[in-house]
């Protein structure tokens, strides 16, 4: 069924015992948007070959996600955080920016199964080691900005096999998932507590790239928990399955725009 108005959503969130939030790709920052920023576009043009773009674009992306303008996205997160004030919530994000934590969401109540730009792993996945990427990533981005010879910029290497280190996220050829599994276990334990509780499932901008992470589990939870209600907001994929239509309110609208303009008292 269609979402009638904002008050229907905000009222159910406020009345719910627990709130599960799924953040999808609509809340990510696409490469095309990054290229609209002159400073990042200029640095991208310094990379003369496709191989160098493949090697160094992730550093530009990390810098943009960390320091680039947020605008409407920032307002959407502010309103979402305000909406969840004093609630028992958990948030799953399909994005690699960890922006929710920067905005004030509790780190112990968030999980990022697609990884992030905050840690490195071996490109070959030769071991399960995960290494903090902050200092090295800042250094490499700084060197790109200095008009240095790209070939002389050193990429950190694995201490075991000497292969390059890459960011520990889903884009890695052999993604080391250990980086998020502790948080995922915490999420699973939280989810067990939602049984027979008044649960609000708030799905925002979740597409079909990895439906088994958020989309399908949310539908399953809404189906089995008779006290649950689900809100699915997406610019083109707001449809719900027939077996939960009586408990799923949908709205066909960009979820970032929607949440940035929602009134939260």
Q: Tell me, what's the shape?
A: globular
How many individual helices?
10
Number of self-contained structural domains: 1
Number of beta strands: 9
- Helical content band: 25-40%
Gyration radius (Cα, Å) is 20 Å
User: Architecture in CATH?
Assistant: 3-Layer(aba) Sandwich
How many angstroms separate the termini? Answer: 25 Å
Q: Quote the CATH topology.
A: Rossmann fold
| Protein structure class | alpha/beta
String of helices and strands: HEHHHHEHEEEHEHEHEEH
Average pLDDT taken over every residue: 93
CATH class: Alpha Beta
CATH superfamily: TPP-binding domain
Strand residue percentage: 15-25%
Uncertain segments: none
Query: How do the strands of the widest beta sheet line up side by side?
Result: 3-2-1-7-8-9
Largest sheet geometry: 6 strands, parallel
Structure description:
- The chain has helices at residues 6-15, 31-34, 38-45, 50-67, 72-83, 99-103, 134-145, 178-192, 215-224, 255-261, and strands at residues 18-23, 88-93, 110-111, 115-122, 131-132, 165-169, 199-204, 229-234, 248-252.
- The protein has one domain: 3-Layer(aba) Sandwich (Rossmann fold), CATH 3.40.50.1220.
- Helix 4 (50-67) crosses helix 7 (134-145) and helix 5 (72-83) crosses helix 10 (255-261).
- The mean pLDDT is 93.
- The protein is α/β, with parallel strands linked by helices and 265 residues long.
- A six-stranded parallel beta sheet has the order 3-2-1-7-8-9, with helices on both faces. It has a three-stranded antiparallel beta sheet with strand order 5-4-6, with helices on one face.
- The protein has ten helices and nine strands.
- The radius of gyration is 20 Å and the shape is globular.
């Amino acid at each position: 069924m269609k979402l009638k108005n904002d008050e229907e959503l905000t009222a159910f969130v406020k009345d719910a015992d627990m709130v599960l939030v799924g953040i999808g790709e609509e809340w990510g920052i696409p490469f095309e948007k990054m290229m609209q920023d002159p400073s990042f576009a200029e640095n991208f043009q310094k990379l003369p070959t496709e191989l160098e773009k493949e090697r160094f674009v992730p550093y530009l992306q990390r810098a943009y996600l960390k320091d680039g303008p947020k605008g409407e996205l920032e307002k959407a997160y502010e309103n979402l955080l305000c909406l969840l004030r004093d609630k028992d919530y958990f948030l799953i994000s399909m994005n690699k920016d960890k922006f929710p934590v920067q905005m004030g969401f509790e780190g112990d109540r968030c999980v990022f199964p697609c990884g992030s730009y905050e840690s490195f792993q071996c490109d070959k996945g030769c071991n399960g080691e995960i290494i903090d990427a902050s200092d090295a990533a800042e250094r490499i981005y700084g060197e790109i900005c200095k008009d240095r010879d790209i070939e002389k910029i050193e990429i950190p290497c694995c201490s075991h096999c000497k292969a390059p280190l890459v960011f520990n996220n889903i884009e890695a050829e052999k993604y080391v998932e250990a980086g998020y599994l502790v948080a995922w276990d915490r999420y699973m334990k939280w989810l067990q507590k939602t049984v027979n509780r008044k649960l609000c499932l708030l799905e925002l901008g979740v597409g079909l790239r990895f439906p088994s992470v958020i989309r399908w589990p949310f539908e399953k939870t809404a189906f089995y928990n008779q006290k649950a209600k689900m809100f699915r907001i997406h610019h083109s994929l707001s449809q719900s399955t027939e077996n939960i239509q009586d408990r799923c309110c949908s709205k066909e609208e960009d979820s970032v725009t929607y949440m940035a303009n929602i009134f939260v008292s």
